[in-house]
Amino acid sequence: MSDPRIIDVELDEATIIWRNADIEQERRIAIFDLIEENHFKPLREHPDGYAGPFKLKLSVQEGRLVLSMAREDDEPLETLILALGRFRRPIRDYFAICDSYYQAIRKATAQEIETIDMARRGVHDHGAELLMERLDGKIDVDFKTARRLFTLICVLHIKN
User: Fold this and answer.
1) Is 81 helix (H, G, I), strand (E, B) or coil?
2) Is 109 exposed, middle or buried (0-12, 13-18, 19+ CB in 10 A)?
3) At residue 92, does pLDDT exceed 60?
4) H helix intervals, the chain
5) Cα–Cα distance between 106 and 150 in angstroms, integer?
6) Tell me, what DSSP letter sits at residue 71?
7) Is 50 helix (H, G, I), strand (E, B) or coil?
8) Contact 158, 91 (CB under 8 A)
9) Is 106 exposed, middle or buried (0-12, 13-18, 19+ CB in 10 A)?
10) Radius of gyration of the chain from its Cα atoms, rounded to whole angstroms
11) pTM for the complete prediction?
């Protein structure tokens, strides 16, 4: 029986460079929302026909995004490694605009906050589209899932 969804997400704590309260809140919300509603279907068929649900561990190793997938019982299934070069700018832009957004919440007008939030959503959407592009032919995800995964990729950040 097919159950193409993520039931657990783990971020490699050693990968995370820094945290602040705002980023930590983004992480918590993204993981909660991802677990509640997602579509995640690896396209490589497993010999026994296993098709979900999946546990996912995200990490960055040597400048690459590593998606380690496991069965519900923690038995490893496969690992997908993606180059992060094309994500560097969207990640940097996302952090910059999030920083502006969090600062604006504390002192800007409602209209200024809305303008920054629209820009933030645009950068976030672009990152999600890029992720869907990179996963094409490997893992089928819907837009909301890609968006939440992009948030988690940003939380992992890239070690320089």
Assistant:
1) strand
2) exposed
3) yes
4) 21-36, 88-107, 110-135, 143-156
5) 25
6) -
7) coil
8) yes
9) exposed
10) 16
11) 0.86
Where is 55: in which H helix or E strand? strand 54-61
Q: How far apart, in Å, do the first and last CA atoms of the chain sit? A: 43
Query: What DSSP character marks residue 51?
Result: B
On the question of pLDDT at 16 being above 60, the answer is yes
8 forms beta bridges with 55
Closest CA to 5 of 67, 46, 53, 49: 53
What is the identity of the amino acid at 23? I
Amino acid at 134: R
* Cβ pair 129, 86 in contact under 8 A: no
- 3-class secondary-structure state, position 2: strand
Q: Say what percent of the chain tops pLDDT 70.
A: 93
Q: Tell whether omega for the bond before 53 is within 30 degrees of 0, i.e. cis.
A: yes
How far apart, in whole angstroms, are the C-alpha atoms of residue 101 and residue 119?
A: 9
52 to each of 1, 39, 77, 134, how far by Cα in Å?
8, 10, 10, 21
**Two structure tokens written together for 48:** 């026994």
Q: How many CB atoms are closer than 10 A to CB 104?
A: 18
Distance, C-alpha 32 to centroid of its chain: 12
